[in-house]
Amino acid sequence: MGLGKFFETFSSDIGIDLGTCNTLIYIRGKGIVVSEPSVVAVERGTRQVVAVGTEAKRMLWKTPGDIIAIRPLRDGVIADLESTEKMIRYFIGKVLPKRWFVKPRMVIGVPSCITEVERRAVEECAYKAGARDVKIIEESLAAAIGAEIPIFEPAGHMVCDIGGGTTEISVISLGGMVVTNAIRIGGDEFDEAIIKHVRSVHNLIIGEQTAEKLKMEIGNATPEKKIEKMEIKGTDAITGLPRRLEIDSVEVREALQEPISVVIEEVKRTLGQTPPELAADIVERGIVMTGGGSLLKGLPKLVAKETGVPVILAEDALLSVALGAGKYYEHAKDQSNSRNIYNSIG
């Protein structure tokens, strides 16, 4: 058995969706093994890790003075290198044996709008966390593989991946990105828009978790027959005292209009930059939407209405990037095998 074959047989292939809101990890043969918030709680003085993931998210904005809960990623990029490395190491240590026989290969999905320095920071984190080999790929390419789009075909496929910190829209053909645009707007900005609206209209200060709950439970992008209501609690901006407020889905939709329209404009811009032959394929096949942000009620319907192109919501929209990153090596191997067969015929 050659060394390469040996490594392939005994090592794990790990796909990571290093998201602003959540980190998802896929292991070949096991599926998604980690889906937890990208939050790390550390001691203020020593930077000693107290909690990671779900447990740390519960501490967000609620910690005593000696503990700080931080989100090490912002807008899809690493804002705190040390905490990101500790977070990756913790999640991987949770799902792999303590003493690895062979170090794993890692594929990490990142937004295409990040800089070369930011890309290297992600790579460095993965190596420090114990990877043997690291491959950094664009999120929309990973999402396309995860959504089982036949990306190696000589045909145009459009993917719109709305994550926590970024939205990436790409046209893929023959396994490569023909056109790609990314903006630093995602689910976080949706929450921020709700927070701003509630404060400016009702003088009520609410936290990120309350805004996220509003978005998920009664948020929508298109008008619906039934108007839903929800009670929220926050701090009165004038008196500083706690206060309750009932808010309805119409108001939440109004609050979300601005960030949603920016996303739709970006989709239209990408369609406008697409070569005519590939645009014809997209009109026929539709736009595939992935990422947690695409799960906002009525958003796929609104994108279809505004662009005149059919929209398909990926089956595992939330998991697409992690699934695609984890299956990247298999896809690349299948592709090189089919090329070899083609070349031997040629």
Lay out the secondary structure.
Elements: H1 3-10, E1 13-18, E2 22-27, E3 31-37, E4 40-43, E5 49-52, H2 54-59, E6 67-70, E7 73-74, E8 77-78, H3 81-95, E9 105-110, H4 116-128, E10 133-138, H5 139-146, E11 157-162, E12 167-173, E13 176-183, H6 187-202, E14 204-205, H7 208-218, E15 229-236, E16 242-248, H8 249-273, H9 276-285, E17 287-290, H10 299-307, E18 311-313, H11 320-326, H12 328-345
Parallel strand pairs: 1-9, 9-10, 11-17, 17-18
Antiparallel strand pairs: 1-2, 2-3, 4-5, 4-6, 7-8, 11-12, 12-13, 14-15, 15-16
Helix pairs in contact: 3-4, 5-11, 6-7, 6-8, 8-10
What can be said about this structure in brief?
The protein has 12 helices and 18 strands. It is an alpha+beta fold.
Structural commentary:
- The chain has 346 residues and is α+β, with helices and mostly antiparallel strands.
- It folds into three domains: 3-143 and 322-345, Nucleotidyltransferase, domain 5, CATH 3.30.420; 149-185 and 262-315, ATPase, nucleotide binding domain (Nucleotidyltransferase, domain 5), CATH 3.30.420.40; 187-255, ATPase, substrate binding domain, subdomain 4 (Actin, Chain A, domain 4), CATH 3.90.640.
- The protein is built from twelve helices and 18 strands.
- The strands form five sheets. It has a five-stranded mixed beta sheet with strand order 3-2-1-9-10.
- Helix 4 (116-128) links the parallel strand 9 (105-110) and strand 10 (133-138).
- The protein starts with a helix and ends with a helix.
- Mean pLDDT is 86; it is low at 1-7 and 338-346.
